[in-house]
Amino acid sequence: MAPFDSGKSTWKNAALLDATCVDCDVRNTAFCDGVPERELARLETLATFLEIRSGETIINEADPSEFIFNVTGGAVKLYKLMADGRRQITGFLFAGSFLGVSDHSEYAYTAEALAPTSLCRFPRKKFESLLAEFPTIGQRMVSILMDDLAGAQNQMLLLGRKTARERVASFLVLLSTRTGKKEQGREVLPIPMNRVDIADFLGLTIETVSRTLTSLKKDNIITIPDGGHIEILDSDELAAISEHL
Amino acid sequence: MAPFDSGKSTWKNAALLDATCVDCDVRNTAFCDGVPERELARLETLATFLEIRSGETIINEADPSEFIFNVTGGAVKLYKLMADGRRQITGFLFAGSFLGVSDHSEYAYTAEALAPTSLCRFPRKKFESLLAEFPTIGQRMVSILMDDLAGAQNQMLLLGRKTARERVASFLVLLSTRTGKKEQGREVLPIPMNRVDIADFLGLTIETVSRTLTSLKKDNIITIPDGGHIEILDSDELAAISEHL
DNA sequence: CGACTCGTTGACTCTCTTCAAGGATAGTGG
DNA sequence: CCACTATCCTTGAAGAGAGTCAACGAGTCG
Fold first, then answer.
1. Is the pLDDT of residue B43 over 90?
2. How far apart are CA B62 and CA A138, in angstroms?
3. How many cross-chain Cβ pairs, A to B, lie less than 8 Å apart?
4. Measured from the CB, is B48 under 7 Å from any atom of strand C?
5. What is the pLDDT at residue A120?
6. pLDDT at A8
C-alpha cells in the first residue's frame, strides 16, 4: 500500500467499513433524507461505506462515472485541470454533500480528500433505479443540485467580477456559514485547506491570497492565530467587503 | 403596454398561447421527455405557454421562486448583479433548456430574453408533485441539472484561470456546439447577444472582447461579416486556443 | 440630417502576477 | 538536543495583461 502522502492512490485503496444508514451522521442532510426508516435496509444493500485518507483521490475528471457518493465526514476538494497545469477548484465539500456530478457518462471534476474522509457510495445504475423506487430521493436530488447550481453561480460572479479583496472576504464568509460556530461574538474558523487550494478556488495566486489576508489582518477584520485557523473579528465588515467594495 | 425595448417588463405582460405538449418543439430534449404520450394531457393541465419579447425579464434574482420554465424557443440570458452594477452572466439558454434554478425558495439569477422567446411554465409546487407522479421527470431533471452543473464548472475554470484569448475562443467553441451548423467546412455562427453580454459572460470588458476578436480575425481564425455573425475559419485552432495557450 | 446605440481602436493606468528571497514550523537523523 | 531539510507562508520589487478613459466610425431611427 502507498505511503500516507501518496496523491495517486484512489478509493480502490480505501478501507471498507461496516457502517449503517440508520446511525449515519448525515442521515437528514444527504439525498437519502426522506427515505422511510423501514426502507433503510434496502438502501443499505446498494451502499458501500468507505474511509479514505487525506490527499487520496476519490474520482478523476473524465473517468467513466460508475459511482455517486455522499460525503459522510471529513472534507473534499473538487477541481478541474488544464493541460499546462493550471487548476480551478470548483468547490469544497463537507459532511452531507453529494459527490459525483457527471456530464453524460464522465465525471466533470476530480475529487480529492482534504482530510481523512468517510463516504458512502452507490453504483450509478442502481442509483437511477433508486430514483424510480423512492420518488423522495428524486425530489431531494433536484433540491440539492439546484442549491449546488446556485452556489456555482455565486462562484461565477466571484471569479468573473470580484476583486481579490472581495474574493477572499467572500471565501471567509462562505466557510463561516458552512463550518463556523460563533463563541460569544468571536468566531474561529478552521481552515482545512492550504494557500494553494484557496488560491485555486478564488482564481488568484497564493501570493495575492497571502497579501490580502495580511491586509484584512492589518484592518482588524481578522486575526490569523496559525496557518490552520482564521479568527473573524468583524463579520459585518467582512460581509460588506464580500459583496460591495 | 410597454414599447418594444422595455427592460422592466416581465412575463406578466407576456402573451399567453394555446400551445400543446404534443406538438412541442422541445418535446424530446426538455425535462418532460419520458412522460408517456397518453399522460401529456395531464401535463398540459399544469403548464402555461408564454411568448415574450426581446429584452423582457422572465424572473428576477431573489424573487420567490413560484414557477419553473422550459425554454421552447428563442434565447435567454441569466445573470447576477452586484450592488454597484457589476454583472456576471452565468449562462445563455436556448430551446430545450430548463429555467428557474433556486436556492431554497428564491431564484438564483435574473433571466431575460435575448430574442423573442417562447416558454412553458409550471407552478413550482405542482412541479414537485409531478416528480412524485412521473419518476422519469425526476431522472431527467437530475440529468439536466448535472449537465448544467458540469457546464458551470467549465465556466468556473474559464473565469478563474483562462486568459482573455482563451475565454473568447472557448465562448465561440461553446456557441458552435450549441447553435452551430457546418456548411462544407465553413461555419457561420449567429451571435444573438451583444458585446456587453459577451463581456459580462466571460468576465471581461467590451474593449477586451473587441480587441480579442480583432486579433483572432488578424490570425485568420475567424471573420466577422457583421455584428450579429462570426464565421469560424479554423475550428481546430480555435479549440486548441480554448484549452491551452 | 442630427441623435443615439454599438463596436472598434488608441493611450495610459492599475491590479494582480511573476520572480525572487527570506521566515516559520515540523519532521528526520546523527 | 541540535543541525539539516522540506514545506508552507509571507514579503518585496518588477512586469504584464486586462481595465479605464477617450475618441471615432458605422449603422439605425425618428
1. no
2. 25
3. 147
4. no
5. 94
6. 45
On whether the CB atoms of residues A156 and B159 are closer than 8 A, the answer is: yes
CB-neighbour burial class of residue B3 (10 A; exposed 0-12, middle 13-18, buried 19+): exposed
A165 CB-to-strand C distance under 7 Å: yes
A206 touches strand D (CB under 7 A): yes
CA A214 – C1' D12 distance (Å)?
14
pLDDT given for residue B11 in this prediction: 59
Mean pLDDT across the stretch A70-81?
96
For the ranges A20-24, A152-156, B113-117, the one whose mean pLDDT is highest: A152-156
Statement: the CB of B213 is under 7 Å from strand C = yes
Q: What is the pLDDT of residues A5-40, one digit of tens each?
A: 334 445 566 667 777 888 888 988 999 888 888 888
Contact B88 A131 (CB under 8 A): no
Give mean pLDDT, residues B163-174: 98
Cell of B104: 431554497
- Share of chain B residues as helix, strand and coil, in percent rounded to the nearest 5: 40, 30, 35
Question: Out of B84, B109, B148, whose CB is closest to A244?
Answer: B84
Band of the pLDDT at B10, cuts 50, 70, 90? low
Under 8 Å between Cβ of A17 and A6: no
B152, closest residue in chain A (CA to CA): A152
Measure CB to CB from residue A90 to each of B138, B139, B156 and give the nearest one. B156
Structural domains for chain B: 3-159 (2.60.120.10), 163-243 (1.10.10.10)
DSSP notation for A44-90: HHH-EEEEE-TT-EEE-TTSB--EEEEEEESEEEEEEE-TTS-EEEE
> Which residues in B lie closer than 8 A to residue A150 (C-beta atoms)?
101-103, 108
- Spatial strand order of the sheet with A182-183 comes to A182-183, A186-190, A229-232, A222-226
Query: Please, what is the average pLDDT of chain A?
Result: 90
Q: What is the pLDDT of residue B169?
A: 98
pLDDT the model gives residue B2: 35
Cα separation, B231 vs A20, whole angstroms:
58
Q: What is the DSSP letter of B92?
A: E
Question: Is 80 exceeded by the pLDDT of residue A229?
Answer: yes
The whole-number average pLDDT for the span A186-205 is 95
Cα separation, A156 vs A147, whole angstroms: 14
Residue A163 has φ and ψ, to the nearest 5°, of -75, 170
CA distance A98 to B51: 37
Cell numbers 475554470 label which residue? B157
